Amino acid sequence: MTQEFRYQQLEAWLLQGIEEQRWRQGERLPSIRTLCREHKLSKATVQHALQRLEVQGQVEARPKAGYFVSLQAPAVNRPVSRARIEAPRPVTVSELLQDIMRRSAAFDLLPQHSPGDLPPGIVALNRAIGRSLRRQSGQDFQYYDEPAGNVALREQLALHMARRGWPCEPDALCITSGCQHALFLALMACCTRGDVVAVESPGFYGVMQIIEQLGLQVVEVPASLETGMDIDALEDVLQRWKVRACVVSPAFATPGGALMPESSKRRLLALAESYDLAVIEDDIYADTALGAVPDPLKALDRDQRVILCSSFSKCLSRDLRIGWVSGARWHARILHLKLVTQLSSSQFVQRGLAEFMADGSFTAHLRRLRTELRTQRDRLLQLLNDWPGSIRVSKPQGGLAVWVELPSGEDTLALYAKALQQQVVITPGPLFSASGQFRNCMRISFAHPWNPLREQALSRLAALCALSP
Amino acid sequence: MTQEFRYQQLEAWLLQGIEEQRWRQGERLPSIRTLCREHKLSKATVQHALQRLEVQGQVEARPKAGYFVSLQAPAVNRPVSRARIEAPRPVTVSELLQDIMRRSAAFDLLPQHSPGDLPPGIVALNRAIGRSLRRQSGQDFQYYDEPAGNVALREQLALHMARRGWPCEPDALCITSGCQHALFLALMACCTRGDVVAVESPGFYGVMQIIEQLGLQVVEVPASLETGMDIDALEDVLQRWKVRACVVSPAFATPGGALMPESSKRRLLALAESYDLAVIEDDIYADTALGAVPDPLKALDRDQRVILCSSFSKCLSRDLRIGWVSGARWHARILHLKLVTQLSSSQFVQRGLAEFMADGSFTAHLRRLRTELRTQRDRLLQLLNDWPGSIRVSKPQGGLAVWVELPSGEDTLALYAKALQQQVVITPGPLFSASGQFRNCMRISFAHPWNPLREQALSRLAALCALSP
Fold this sequence. Notes:
Two copies of one chain form a homodimer.
Chain A: H1 6-19, H2 32-39, H3 43-55, E1 59-62, E2 66-69, H4 93-104, H5 120-134, H6 151-162, E3 174-176, H7 178-190, E4 196-201, H8 205-213, E5 217-224, E6 228-229, H9 231-240, E7 243-248, E8 251-253, E9 258-259, H10 262-275, E10 278-282, E11 306-311, E12 323-326, H11 331-342, H12 347-358, H13 361-385, E13 392-393, E14 401-405, H14 412-421, E15 427-428, E16 441-445, H15 452-465
Parallel strand pairs in A: 4-5, 4-7, 7-10, 10-11
Antiparallel strand pairs in A: 1-2, 3-12, 5-6, 8-9, 11-12, 13-14, 14-16, 15-16
Family (chains A, B): In the C-terminal section; belongs to the class-I pyridoxal-phosphate-dependent aminotransferase family.
Protein name (chains A, B): PLP-dependent aminotransferase family protein
Pfam families (chains A, B): Aminotran_1_2, GntR
């Protein structure tokens, strides 16, 4: 039994009284003074209990007259609590895809809120945000932040990018609600309805969803699991269609963790100039590098046509909802779209994060994270190595997942549903394609620490695949 | 002079040494042990200083070798700090409008971060968010929230709406990044490019900006300062054009604070059924009611065609960035658009807010806020009463501002620029119209407490108007 606070005991006693009609609807409750005396409670405790009942609609406060039992019972039903895992109801493909998107964005094979302690980096981050909250004063809360975001945070991000070979000004950055928001603003800024956008295939499903919702057209460019987008194939595409923008992830592209070589980056930018493309760089995985952190494509951008998008979600916390975008020649329009779609971001969160970066805690966190991710990737590759049958597995140097190719004929959409019934979450291949390719492939994550339960989950998955040895 | 922490003193000493080339580029700094001994500091303090220099790019850590002076000086320039008030640079009308939008959203005649104490409601809110941060455990930070938002917060919001006459289920609500985001999702969900949207005139500029960015067309329906949108005029509009959606603020519409009577609400909904309209209800000012809080239009919606949008920005804090939307027949599409545009919202902020609501602190805060707003409105009306000349002033029963009509011929766009040079911010009338109407009108806010400085600002404004007595 959980321990109850004294206001909770009083709240329960009053609620019982109302249910048993000790006080009827519209009747006055005992006065605060009476409740204090009879229950040996302070005035603050009694008021706290009464306020809680007021919020629930059980009682009403009438100025200078006291608290009365409400005339109507509250009309809201409590929702049934929902388990994290439930079998999907594939009414339409799009609904199934939404279901998968929601579950898989956590990158957890075995979703569960592990008890345990927070990592030290997150403890430091939370303390910094807490300090930022306590430093609010006066009427601070009455002001919206400027659309570009907090200057101190943009300064820290500019320093962070400078260390990766791209010296940038804080004013070249706009803070967003995560990378998805950054990608949305980028595509909305540089494309109009009907425009064609080139994407990696396999590639990030979030981008394909944005393209769909903005009424754009997609063309899939084959991508290798080692070196990313095939630049020859891109050139072929550019010759055949008028392409407006190209979305790429040079650093550890999802799903396979490909790393684009410098030569490909240079060819990509040359093509972008020839064909007048906007290049949208999804840089979200860069800081999960297991070895050296690659320079961004943006560092080579001499022509103001690379829009860099990123966030803290993969390398720090998915709950911050802080990302950033550097919009090149489209930056002014992106700032305006940020204002129009959302006005501004939370200053107290940004200030805390800026302090966390300024005092070196972020650097220390990244150092620990990369060591852990290397261990977790190695363990996953070792476990997959023991699977029977001929499967192909990517060997990423960064990112949070590997791409597994099962023998052709295997169906990972069916596998997703079967695995889910056993509490195991994979991301099926077709999600990474606008045209339903990669049916025999899946993404498996190493974002979470391996423990016996997760290793068993992986074994159950192997059994479900029924691979012939 | 501000007091420095010991790590800051060491940081400054090391930085000076680097600048004076006591240690040259690429050279090793004294060891941590040496620095501890010579400066009589703890190891943690020395490490803190070194980490800060590492973040700034001044030094580099090499595993097991120590800290070295970086080979390159950091490439980032610190931005020049910008004053809050500066004369606008009217390159294009749209840029001027953006400038005004940014400044006026704070609703402050005399923008300044007042020192002073936070109001008790904000202190309680910040404590609740702090507790929510400290309660994070395990891998909580690794998971995205579901797109609809935290269930506990939606339960509290459902109770809050139920008390206003609209019993709703938590699943009918989707949490957003403020009301602007809610309005954006609503319009994106129920309209496609080229569709016509009816708005109040004068009406909220944020809505007109969304309409522009989504490639929709606007038709302005005259609105009275007392009773809101003119329903006869709306009917006339509906007969002449195919209108897809209508955006209204029945509760204390900005700029004048109009309150739509029940009879108009019923007629509006009847028209919406006849002409198959989506009705987007901007409910953001409801909780600033100086008297009774009106029921939402949504409470009368029998046909699932009213999309309710609101947020905590006007009645609690502009820095939370938490709003909500109830999307009626478009709700599933809105949830999907939330996912596609932003993925999810911060759980720790939502949990803290839910607790703040559940323990009655929000109700207590609203009670105090309304009393203060009444005082502030009364004082503004009293001060405006002393202005010379014939001006017309709205008498709002809620909201945060009054609408002032100067004699025709006055130009509030010019007044805006002149006032800004004297640190005074008004919102000029043309911002509330897509066609530049209301040139002789302006919105003046009573959101902030009056003090001698703000009262002097209002006097300066009166002088700038140069009204003849």
